[in-house]
Structures are given as C-alpha cells and as structure tokens.
C-alpha cells in the first residue's frame, strides 16, 4: 500500500458510518459524510450503505482505510460477527473484496479502538509520547496500546488482544464494575432510582452522596484495572475518552485514586469523533499491529 498524505477513510460503528478525507499534514478532515445503516440489516444492505456513504466523497485518489469494530479478521477483511448483536449478517463475508470492487481501490482494515487510540497518540492528548494507553468509557470499556505509532495487541505487556475489557477486578469482569449498564445498575441499587450515567453525574454534582459514591467507585476501578498494564507497557500517558469523559470533573479524581501514585500523565481525550478518522489515516501510512 502506498503512502499518501490525503487518505480516504471509512469509520464504521454500530449506528453509523463516516466517510472522510483526512489530511495527515494538517491533522485536518477535508470532507466528511455520515450515514446510518441498520446494524441488523442484511449483508447487501450494510455494504450498500457503507459504499453509498463512501461515494459521497466523490472521486478520490489513493487507498482506503476502514476502521471496523470486532470481531473481525483485519488481515483478511472478513467479518466474524457471530452472535454479537450487530452485523451478524456479515459473519464470514469478505467485506474487503466487496469494498475493493465497489471503490476501485485497495482497502486496509484497522480495529476501531486502535484507530481511536492512534488518533489521540498522533494528534491529540497523547501527542509527543512514545507509548500511550488510550481508554474509552461508554457503553463498555475500550482500549488501545500504542507504541511509536503502532497498535500493540499481543505479548506480555498488554492484556489479551490488547483489550482491557477481558480483565477482571476483585473477581468480576471489569465491565460488570464499570460500563454504562454496570453504573446504572449500581445507581439503582444505591439510590432506588433508575438513571443513566449522565443523570448520576448531575446528581453527584448536586450533592447527592449515593450517586457520587457510585461514580467514584466505578471510575476508580478504571484506574485500578489499568495500573498494572501501564507499568508493564511502560506507558508515559493514559488518555481517557468516550461519552463518560464528558464528566471529567468526576472521572479524573476517581481514576487518579485508582492509579495510586502512578508516575505518568492522565489526560482527557482531545479529539472526540475526529480521533478514529485521524488514527485510521495514520494507520494507512503503513503502520502494523504488533
């Protein structure tokens, strides 16, 4: 795959697809279009939706990079979405071949969490570091381990597949401790009121002790579960993004407590939805997963 400074990118999520032209030199997005195919749709409907969105960019030059959630065979370009609640119709489908034929260009795939992490390392809160760990706090707990511009997903210095959500804390899967569903369940148990995480945050700021305690325990768990991996990986910076990072006033002190004196930097993600676009484009320069 040839190096290029302006890279066409597809970023695929469970509820959206974004097509963008990314300028690596300026760290900018030159054009961007969104579509919303149904993740439960047929393989033809999903692929058509992605291709139609890509074509909204017009005639573009160069090879494409696609940021795709797992489970997916990123080298072969084949879906492995069996019984995961989204894209099931693409299980076993050669997505790469379909996109190459439709777009008339080569296509390379990168994990969506890795793309997010690369973007923050390359042009966001982790810029200037050699080794960064980037977490996303939202529906679940996502992670990327980035070393000198390459995602690391194997070896003793990272969790299984580089994914922190496989870890346990005090005998529980970490996403049973900190995730949207886990915090909502803890909030209901502690307060008797069913509320989403942002509503718990509002209550905590308003001085409701039970809501504050629920969030402090959950966000502290993030620091606890990632701390040993920060040490093993030799991370200089921990970046946290995702929807829950909007409550940084509550997230930061609790994560710091869980990190228990870790010497590196804790930063809030800086790029938002632009991060996976920039990261995918960076990956297209010729990065490889280690």
TrEMBL record:
Coiled coil: none annotated. It comes from the Bacteria. One of its GO terms (molecular function) is kinase activity. Keywords: Kinase, Transferase. Belongs to the ROK (NagC/XylR) family. This is Glucokinase. It comes from Agrococcus jejuensis. The lineage of its organism: Bacteria, Bacillati, Actinomycetota, Actinomycetes, Micrococcales.
